[in-house]
Every structure is written in structure tokens, then in C-alpha cells.
Design a protein that fits this description.
This protein is of the alpha+beta class and about 260 residues long. About 40% of the residues lie in helices and about 25% in strands. The strands form four sheets. A four-stranded antiparallel β-sheet has the order 3-4-2-5, with helices on one face. A four-stranded antiparallel β-sheet has the order 9-10-12-11. It has a two-stranded antiparallel sheet with strand order 1-6. The longest helix has about 45 residues. The model has no long low-confidence stretch (mean pLDDT about 95).
Amino acid sequence: MSRIRPLNLPLSIYFPNKRLVSLAVELKNVPGALMEDLAVIHRFGINIVGLLSNTATANSPTTSVVIHLDVSGVEEEKLQEMLEEIRRQEKTLSAHILDAGIHSFTADQYHNRILSLNARVVLMSEASLKGLLHSLYTTFGDAAAAAFLYHMGMGGGHAIARYEKQLFKDPRVCIRAIEHNAVAFGYAHRLTIREVGATMFEVIFEGLFECEYLAGKKGPTSNWIRGMAAGFIEELFGGKWSATEVKCVNAGDGVCMFRVVRQ
């Protein structure tokens, strides 16, 4: 089993009994630009509690970074002095201090759209996803909720595969990419997709969010990701495919495994 190495995204931060602000900087996309600003923060003895860097590709002349700072006990005059020194750095185009106005809290107030691979991403918290799943089963019953989630997942799987085909072309490269992206986006701790002949794929998740959030129900319990697996393979290889969950943590197994079979 994979060792869990959590990433606590610094989109927003709550740090009890601390005064937090965020520093938003626009930088030239050249080596050393960020290091100059970090060196200034270090010289002023201010602690960094989180940092968000935009993707800086070769064809982008600028990039943006949000740096969350613990300024507890830091006088306003000193904070402004640090800001002005950062603005004087050769590779810094602009710099602003952003204050959420909530004690012990800060958030990225600079960027207003999240992208990954240049496509929009909408993040949902654990509380939101649990509420969505449980309310579906409670409101519509197991059979209807399972059918709804499966077909919703299938549509999502098709859409993901279409987008990845634009980037990677080769269906088997798309499979390798989704193995990485499933972990990077928090769907699971690990994803392995194995091709079993010409008519079957085995899709194996460790730490699949859907089944973890439905703990207490008797497995198999994945329908959303089961449908997504079928739609993804269907889009990549054509024809009609269906997915069955043959192992599930809610049935006492160590992993959640799907067999995706050509019809």
C-alpha cells in the first residue's frame, strides 16, 4: 500500500492566534525572480506559512505568486518597508499586500480562476462531497443514486479522455497521465490501470475518495468512479464498455478494483 504524503494546499489558511496576510507578486518569467523576493522576506525575518506559484511555461513572459505570511507582532511600518523593497527588485513587476480582514485567516485573493493543464478546475471540500453522496442515497435510494452516479461518471470519463487525447494523442499515454492526475487531484493515493488482453482493463485504486466517503455502507460502493472508468476507456478505445467493481474497501478488501470490459 502507498504511504500517504498529504499536501495541504495553501489556497486558504487558518492559523489560530496569528495575524496572517498574503503577498501577491507579478514576476518576470526569468531564473531567480522568485528567489529575490524570498530573500527580502527572509531579511525582514517574516515567516512564510504557504506559497502558491502559477505555472511558468517557456512562452509566458510573466508569472504570479501568492505568498502567505505570518506577520504576528510585525509593525505596519516594517511590513510596508518590506513591500517597498520587494517592489524595487529588478525582476518584480508588481507587489501587493492582501488582508482578508479575518483574524487568523488568509486566502488567495489575487487569482480568481483555478486552472490545470490550461483547463478550469473547481475544487470541492470533503464536507461538500460527502454531503453530495450521502444526500443522493438518502433522497433517491441506493438503486437510483447508483444509476445517477454511474452515468454522471461515464460522461465525465468521456470528457476527460477527449481532453487528454488533445494533449497526448496516444491512448496508452493518456492512461499513464490519468494514473498521475488521479493522485495529483486527490481522487486516490494511487491508481494503476492494467490492460488485460484486447477486451479488458483492470483499474485499481488505493484510497479512493468515493468509497472512503461512503464508509459504513456495504460494498461495493463506487458508482461515480466506476462510471468514470468505463467512460474514459470507452472514449480512448471506441465501442461500448462497462465497468464492475470487483473489490472494494467497504467489502473488506484492501483496494477498490474495477474490471472494464468491452461489450
